[in-house]
Amino acid sequence: MSLSRRHLFTLSGGIAATAGLAACGSNTGRTDTAAPAASSAAAALPSVSVWYHKYGEDGVEQALKKWAAEYTKAKVSVNWVAADYEKTAAAALLTSSGPDVFEWGTGPSLDMIQAKQVVDVTDIVGAAKADFTPTVMKRLTFQDKIWAVPQTVDMHLLYYRKSLLTKAGLQPPKTIDELIAAANALKTKDMGGFFAGNDGGLGVLGSFIIWAAGLEQISADGKSAGFNTGALYDAVAKFKTLFDAPGMLKSASTDWYDATPFINGETAMQWAGLWDMTKVQAAHQDDFGVIPFPAIGSGGRQVVPFGAYSACVSAKAKDVDAAKAYVKAIWVDDDAKQIEFSNAFGTHIPAKPKLFAQASKVASGAGADAAKFVTDFGHIDDILWTPASGTAYSTALSNVVKSGKDAQTEFTAAADKVAAELKRVTG
Amino acid sequence: MTTAQAAPTASGRLRRTPTRPGNALARSRNRWFWAFVTPFLAGLMVFVYIPIAWSLYLSFFDARNTVTPTKFVGLGNYAYLLSDQLFLNSMGTFIVFALVIVPLTFACSLGLALLLHKIPVMQAFFRSAFFLPTACSYVVASMVWRMSFFNGARFGMFNTGLRGLGLDPVNWLEGGSNYWYWVVLVSLRLWLQVGFYMVLFIAGLNAIDPQVYEAAAIDGARGFNVFRSITLPLLRATSIAVAMLLLINAFQAFDEFYNTLNTVRGYPPYARPPLVYVYLISFGEGSQDLGIGSAGTMILTMVILVFSLVQSRILSIGADK
To answer: Taking CB atoms and an 8 Å cutoff, what residues of chain A touch B179?
Structure first.
């Protein structure tokens, strides 16, 4: 079950995991036509087929189908892909029977843009570009064109128990040293200090070390790796200290993307997703807070990785203009739908910051903190960061942290690989 | 009528008359041949040969997110993979795996076959019992191995046993410098495939003429000598086939690795056989790098071919004597 996705984030992992687990084997690939009974007028309308992955939260499917049915300028059908969305959609996009509009983790991949599978949507975003979260729009823009419209924003967060930190006389950690100290201080016989997955956090936190150390995955000129410096070697050494710390919990009842260990009291702090917040709130009420991943080293900064499922328009759409018009109507023009999406199912952040105040779940408390983090500390995989680059980096990281190999040798090899990848995909 | 038919030459009559009923038979045989073979041939063409040929074609192109590429790169994709240290490392992983799993499965299935071959009671039951795991899917078995038997938490089945013996629980799939994951992967594959090869060996053993054994007994051959001088040489054909199938299967290892070790955030950097690595870089996270993927499968096919030829050559030395 491969659940993360290229270039999107990362966080898709949690959402998709929930979806995937709930949906094993139930994908019929059937298209549910949400349009109302055909009338003679409907027959003349263009048709638009829209594909979504299965969201874990109840009600999303009904809402999306209702919106499709209510749209009057085209006959919109919704295909709710219950399992293995990306493989299904990617394969369908090669054919003439693929989707007209489809969502993709934080916009289409570089390969999709270069293979001309998606069309430029700069015109339908228009002046509204300024309304969307800048960090999200930056990722959706490639060579000065906008390639998708953000639907909703999701993210990872570090959850902590306020009462436990207060009792230990500690502040919420802003640096990795503080996190290590807090994890060790909060650890008890029955409770771990910090949990970030059953692999000790290597999988989920690994790629954030680059950003937390103040570096970037790819250099500014887009020709080489941006991470292969002494600052990274030091940051990884620091991360190894966290990895080996007694307060680091390395096995729990679920993996990081599910906050159950934090809710059950298996751990005092956990790396998890915004999608867990509703559940955490129900269990701990106000006795919890959220913070970004802490800064590492003198040039470091706090980091939150985000993802935003975004609507893309297929270049093979039967009626490209009708497809674009639908995307514009739902995700650019209609703020009420953004608010509904953020309020009605789980916790999501509207893609437009001006709507935060109306989105009840992110208007105050931990939700409001989270929403602010996306703008202030948000990072996402570079569009040029290919699976081969990610694989090379994570291999180097694991070799250094787990097997104690030399950081400079390992990361230089990974950086060479990244440079070769950049040459291959942009050359 | 007769005069009209007599008109052709003698040689013509000779050719036609006797073959007329044969022709009809041949035609009808032909028809049935094609009736039965066509569907399979068509299936083979559409689902096997055309994709292989297409894959070969794609391997010479920069084919990202397209099956009709236009950017020809020659041997670029091959060079890319062969200069990729991680791809070469994955070959190393395969060799370690094959060196363990091929002889181990071979020995275990042959051993089981020898034990069951002459068993006087409940032979059918034992054969079925050992054969049954073959019917289990790799994915299902991987899940059972990962979540139940070799769960790294202290309540995992083997860890419960270890704790009962006063030992520390083992984090089986941790990786890094912890190599216990090989126990998980090897035991899983062994369990799944040993029964199948056992059946092949039993068939081979049954084909050996009992008179050979009787003759050997009269000449005074006993125990291991009989096995070494009669059973093994006469099983040569079966052994070569089994060894080759085992090697090819080991090369194609994917399911149990992927389903045992993959996590939400991706596949860990250890225990990555070539197919898993090629899959990760060409289809990872929703991408479709068909050029690199195809080049990877072509390289693997060539390696399997070479290994198989070398192996069968080595194993069949002296076979004709």
So the answer is: none
